[in-house]
Amino acid sequence: MIEIGSFIKLQRTKQEKTLGELADGVVSVSYLSKIENLKTQASPEIIKMLCDRLGIQVDNREEELIKEKLNDWYSMLFEVNNKEDIIIAYEEIQEMLDRNLSENLLLFEIHKIRYFLILGDYDEAAKKINELKGLSNNFDSLQQFYWFKFRGNFYTLKDGDYNQSIKMYNVAEERISHIDISEDEIADLHYIISVTHSKLRNTLEAIEYANKALNIYMKLYNFLRCAQCHNILGISYRRIKMYDKAIKNYNLALHLGKLNNNGQLIQLTNQNLGHLYSVKGDSNEAIKYYLEIINNIEVQPGDKLASIASLVKEYYIIGNYEETRKSVDYGLALMKELSNIEPYKLFYYVIHTYNFLLNEEFESFERLVIEEFLPYLKKNKDFASLATHVKLLAEQYEKQHKYKAATKYFKEANFAYEQITNI
């Protein structure tokens, strides 16, 4: 059962009441503070007066029903189901908990962080985190597990702060030995940790945690999640140039994606395979995988842009300028169909960069790359793309016999490559 002091503090902060407003005419502010922080035990009469002021009836007759509905809702958050269904379930549970002193209240409040993240409401998620910080010292191990896991989710989704995320996930992992949770939950945390290490270019750690998650998912016959783990392993092995292992894992992911008829997973794996062959210098093989995505009529226009941008670069590398032009024109046409280009900014810059090159509009190319594209890549710490396009700029200067500028940008390209190896 949640401690009554924590319950009162939670409800007071939710209603944005100050200690003074709630205490007025009932108890002193200092005494209320002691109640909320579990430093004293108030009489039933005082508790009733405080709850009446908050408009709450201390009633736990619906506890079993609440627990059942909460477990269903937690499962919806875990699998990320239909948002409308999640919202309806949330509102029903919230109404029940507003009139009940439930032992599950704090866990529900912690899960609201995940709820708001799924809805894309990062401000509400931040607000909920700040609201719960004052209670976090009293969380039990299960509550701490989700508290740190969902805060890790928050740092990833809101700010892309993977260093802060991995700190949160590591603390959540430490709680596993103290709680009783499903293997699914453990595997999910290991998978998230592997993805976060991959984002940080901690390749060996990414491999370690992807394998931990994979071992559990194989036992559970969760082939979709197995495929996701194989993709992380493929990316990791590709980064350390173990190409055979990378291809093996990508092919396993592709096979499982087809078994599950999961178009998104098939598309992601084809993109990863294309990138692998591009890194190996095999443009023709890379093109084959990019075309698999582009020629799939079920793939949405926005989702094709990554493959089109990649295809443009590969055709240009092998000197097939006719196909480069066709791909650029296709990309320009697709971008006109998008109402918001911001999520696709990287591909926008790539396609326009090569468009200017093909048109021999060097001034426009130079202006776009130097004033917009390179600052964008630096801001997002995309050193791989930065190295590629700085080198492209240097090569254009070299062709124009502008050797001083070429040297400057070749050096910058080398620096970007160093950043990749140092990450």
Automatic annotation (TrEMBL):
Residue ranges spanning the membrane: these are none
Q: Name one GO molecular function term.
A: DNA binding
Q: Does the keyword Aminoacyl-tRNA synthetase apply?
A: no
Q: Which SUPFAM superfamilies match?
A: lambda repressor-like DNA-binding domains (SSF47413), TPR-like (SSF48452)
Residue ranges of the TPR repeats are: 227-260
Q: Which keywords does UniProt give here?
A: TPR repeat
- Boundaries of each HTH cro/C1-type domain copy? 8-61
SMART domains on file: HTH_XRE, TPR
Task: Kindly list any coiled-coil regions of this protein.
Answer: none
What is the name of this protein? Transcriptional regulator
Q: Which organism is it from?
A: Oceanobacillus zhaokaii
